[in-house]
Specification:
Largest interface: B-C, 45 and 50 residues
Number of helices of chain B: 14
Strand order of the largest sheet of chain C: 1-2
Structural class of chain B: alpha/beta
Largest sheet of chain C: 2 strands, antiparallel
Radius of gyration of chain B: 21 Å
Helix content of chain B: 40-55%
Number of helices of chain C: 15
Strand content of chain B: 15-25%
Structural class of chain C: mainly alpha
Shape of chain B: globular
Order of helices and strands of chain B: HEHEHEHEHHEEHEEHEHHHHEHH
Oligomer: heterotrimer
Number of strands of chain C: 2
Number of strands of chain B: 10
Radius of gyration of chain C: 21 Å
Chains: A alpha/beta, B alpha/beta, C mainly alpha
Largest sheet of chain B: 6 strands, mixed
Strand content of chain C: under 5%
Helix content of chain C: over 70%
Order of helices and strands of chain C: HHHHHHEEHHHHHHHHH
Chain lengths: ~280, ~280, ~350
């Protein structure tokens, strides 16, 4: 059974429970959104699933094999992580950044294979024309697209070995305008047929509803609810998880849930109200 | 006119201050040559403390220490309640010496001697200061006699060996150029200092070979630091010189060699003999 | 779409090819060594230099001391300058990559100041502690001081099995300050001649080396320098952040430890031979990056070559400009490198 999964993870940091009994799975071909308020443990869960952190209890596994059993470079060919913002003060060209992606394939693929993977990933993310640019001089949106191209190149399967691969995105759109957000997530959806499963930490619930197949709602280190966006985005669980007052409606056109902040109450004149 | 008068008065005041009216009961000395001279004058009882460069005669070791003469501290010196501070021209810092004077203790600085005449002046000045004119004259006569003897020895040699003075050899060679005590000693003893820059400077190793010294002269501290004579001579810059090939390395007590004290005559005579010894 | 991608030139009008860069720099290094071999306080004709080299290579002792100058003094000195320049530059490049900070230099992990403290201890305390004397005492103490400081800084930078680069940096600054104060304290207690010799040591010089010292330090510099050159790939990944390197499958902790220790040993050995030579480790990698970019696979060996050539040029100037005296080489590298560095910075700013 191909999947990247967390099974009953519990993790404490400095005597504080960061994750409590959390289970989650991502299968190839789907986008799974991880949502929840700040400090809910989303990034920690992502770091457990990337193999960066080891939970106190429970276990993460890839296609049934515990992450711990993987060698670092073997794991790196199966999953890639898009950080929130990877910046550098060094004069790197976009091509240099892209070339790094194929480091875990050094012994598995020929240089020609690797170059082809880089070019294909660059084309998929639409950054081909940026390849000769200085990475530091890109706009925030361009830089994030290059990073997406890089993580795609890292798991780009040039051998067609049919193995599942996973992309972990940590708030990939938080610094982008709505146009870039949409373009980035469209690219993500386009690569799904290559046997890639995506787990994305997202802040924007509407964006999550628009692009995710399934959602997990996390609050205070616990899983609140999970399922299809229409099932997860309900006024009750959302408002209690975020401690907010949000209106949840259903968009008549697409049938997707729509979250609106309940603004201040409409002004009512005390005089007119009394009449 | 009043200005001239003022200058005259000031000059008189200085003369009195300089020689006559100084209380020499409790003296702090900063400078090895001065200490040696005071011992030679037989007034060591007046010395209440010496600096770290005062290592001759050996009896100085019993005197309290005020530390390195270039890094004197006002409070440290004043705590000994001296009536006078005698300091070499190299002693300092100047601000500390000013502080000591401001505290009411006269400071008398004597220029660091670089010639026989300087040594004579030092002996003369100190003898007058401590009211030992007879002993002072004896010392000067002795110095002159020893120097004359040294001159005779030097005159007896036709050759002037080429000398390289090494001040330190940690890593590179720090050597003596002109305007240094080492230069003056070499010339007095009938040698030729082969370097022509001024002060102590690092000598580029191959220049040492090209300058071809016949003798390498150094203080005993260098041999201590290097571990042995052989270690110093093994440095390629020295090994390839005539001096290095013939093992002509002269080592002398650093203070005696560079201190220009009352033993100057004997030191010159000894150095002259050693310089001209046939390898 | 994919066909346009495949036919796209391999992002062509980019930089100089690696072969051209390394070839050119190798030529520059060779040229600097040749110039260095032919110049010096002793003026010798090319024929004499050739004779001396041939005689030396065929194993016979040069009878003329003037010719022995070439093989006993100039040659080991040139080789030392090449090695030290290379090691300082490659260690600087590696440190800058590891710390993701273009202003890092090998001194940052405390190695230079630790070595300085070791050397000054021998110079000053040798008077009282006889076992601190001997021709090899100073280089050994310096190397030991440098390595010790590096290890302390590295251990301080570790918490819970991971190395925090920011803490490492702060620990380096603290150890530098402490070693600097220790050096200052010893300076305070030193007398005139000690003061002179430690001042000159702290300004750096490659003059002190014969074959004996060179052969003692060369293996450490050579092995560690070459090993550092091989860290290009992982250091590239570090440029985007430690987590990126980790996700790419690199053993991040091991790379940090290996880089810091290699730099410590290499620079410790270098500083022990020459004293503190500033600016090479900072400026050379910068210059190389401006020419070829930050790809460490090329940056590291190119920095080594340029560093070696640069130090040979600086040393040749140091021993000929005021001959027969000698300028401290650390002064020259800073005097030449400082303004050049500023020039590059300003030019870079205008280009933006």
């Amino acid at each position: 059974m191909s999947c990247l999964s967390a099974d009953k993870l519990t993790l404490a940091r400095a005597n504080r429970r960061v994750l409590q009994d959390v289970s989650l799975r991502v299968t190839p071909g789907e986008v799974v959104a991880l949502v929840g308020p700040n400090g809910a443990g989303k990034s920690t869960l992502l770091r457990c699933l990337s193999g960066e952190l080891t939970a106190d209890a429970g276990c993460c596994s890839l296609d049934g094999t515990a992450l711990r059993a993987f060698k670092a470079h073997d794991l790196a060919r199966r999953r890639a992580v898009l950080p929130q913002d990877a910046d550098t003060r060094f004069p790197l060209m976009v091509a240099d950044v892209m070339a790094m992606a194929r480091a875990p394939w050094r012994r598995q693929a020929t240089p020609q294979h690797n170059q082809r993977a880089v070019r294909a990933a660059a084309a998929a993310a639409g950054v081909v024309e940026l390849m000769a640019r200085d990475f530091r001089r890109l706009s925030g949106g361009e830089r994030q697209r290059v990073q997406l191209a890089r993580v795609l190149a890292q798991i780009w399967d040039t051998h067609w070995d049919g193995q599942s691969r996973y992309l972990l995105l940590d708030e990939p759109t938080s610094s982008l305008d709505v146009g870039h957000q949409q373009r980035l997530l469209r690219v993500v959806r386009e690569v799904l047929p290559m046997g890639i499963g995506v787990l994305a930490v997202l802040h924007d619930l509407n964006l999550a509803a628009a692009f995710a197949d399934r959602m997990y709602l996390l609050a205070a280190g616990r899983l609140v609810t999970q399922g299809a966006p229409t099932a997860v985005i309900q006024a009750g669980p959302i408002n209690s998880a975020y401690g907010a007052e949000l209106d949840v409606r259903t968009d008549a056109h697409s049938g997707r849930p729509l979250v609106l902040p309940a603004g201040r109450a409409p002004y009512q004149s005390p005089l007119s109200g009394s009449s | 006119m009043p200005i001239v008068l003022m200058w005259v008065l000031l000059a008189c005041a200085w003369a009195v201050h300089a020689d006559g009216a100084l209380d020499t009961q409790r003296v702090v000395v900063a400078g090895g040559g001065l200490t040696a001279t005071l011992y030679a004058l037989g007034v060591e009882d007046h010395i209440v403390a010496v600096d770290s460069s005062s290592r001759w005669p050996p009896a100085t070791a019993e005197k309290p220490q005020v530390g390195y003469m270039r890094a004197l501290t006002a409070e440290g010196v004043l705590s000994l309640s001296p009536t006078l501070v005698l300091a070499s021209g190299e002693a300092g810092p100047a601000s500390v010496l000013h502080l000591i004077e401001a505290a009411g203790v006269p400071v008398r600085q004597l220029p660091a001697p670089r010639s026989a005449a300087d040594v004579r002046t030092t002996i003369h000045t100190l003898a007058r200061l401590f009211e030992r004119p007879a002993r002072g004259c004896e010392l000067i006569e002795h110095l002159d006699a020893a120097l004359a003897q040294a001159r005779d020895i030097v005159a007896g040699y036709d050759e002037h060996p080429r000398v390289l003075f090494v001040l330190s050899a940690d890593g590179q060679l720090l050597t003596a150029g002109r305007d240094t005590a080492a230069h003056a000693m070499i010339e007095l003893a009938g040698g030729r200092n082969i370097t022509d820059y001024t002060g102590y400077k690092p000598l580029t190793p191959e220049a040492a070979v090209e300058l071809a010294p016949d003798v390498i002269l150094t203080g005993d501290h260098v041999i201590v630091a290097m571990g042995s004579r052989q270690a110093l001579l093994a440095k390629p810059a020295l090994a390839l010189t005539p001096a290095g090939r013939h093992g002509r390395l002269l080592v002398m007590d650093s203070l005696r060699l560079l201190g220009f004290g009352p033993r100057l005559g004997e030191t010159v005579a000894r150095l002259a003999r050693q310089l001209h010894e046939q390898p | 779409m994919s066909s346009t991608v495949l036919s796209a030139p391999d992002v062509a009008p980019r930089r100089l090819t690696p072969l051209l860069v390394l070839g050119g720099l190798t030529m520059a290094l060779a040229a600097s060594v040749v110039v260095g071999l032919f110049s010096g306080a002793v003026s010798l004709t090319p024929g004499q230099v050739g004779t001396a080299l041939v005689a030396w290579l065929s194993g016979s002792e040069a009878s003329d001391p003037m010719l022995a100058v070439i093989t006993a003094i100039r040659l080991p000195r040139l080789l030392l300058a090449v090695l030290v320049g290379s090691v300082l530059a490659v260690a600087g490049a590696a440190m800058q990559g590891l710390f993701r900070n273009p202003l890092a230099d090998p001194g940052l992990i405390g190695v230079s100041s630790g070595a300085g403290l070791g050397a000054v201890s021998v110079i000053v305390l040798g008077n009282w502690l006889p076992f601190l004397n001997g021709p090899l005492a100073l280089p050994l103490a310096a190397a030991l001081g440098g390595l010790l400081a590096t290890i302390i800084v590295y251990r301080l930078g570790q918490s819970a099995g991971a190395t925090d680069v920011a803490t490492l940096l702060l620990a380096g600054i603290a150890i530098n300050a402490i070693a600097g104060a220790g050096t200052g304290l010893l300076t305070y207690f030193s007398n005139d001649s000690e003061l002179r010799s430690l001042t000159f040591w702290l300004m750096g010089s490659v003059a002190g080396s014969g074959w004996q010292q060179l052969l003692l330090a060369a293996p450490f510099m050579l092995v560690c320098g070459l090993a550092l050159c091989l860290l290009g790939r992982p250091l590239n990944a570090f440029l985007l952040g430690e987590d990126v390197a980790l996700h790419l499958g690199y053993p991040v902790e091991r790379i940090k430890a290996v880089t810091v220790l290699l730099c410590g040993v290499a620079v410790g050995a270098a500083v022990s031979m020459t004293g503190v030579i500033g600016f090479v480790g900072l400026v050379v990698p910068h210059v190389v990056r401006l020419i070829i970019g930050a790809d460490h696979r090329l940056l590291l060996p190119a920095s080594a070559l340029l560093g070696g050539a640069g130090l040979v040029v600086a040393d040749t100037a140091a021993r000929t400009l005021v001959s027969p005296a000698e300028l401290p080489i650390g002064i020259l590298t800073t005097l030449l490198g400082g303004p050049f560095f500023l020039f590059l910075l300003l030019q870079n700013r205008y280009r933006q």
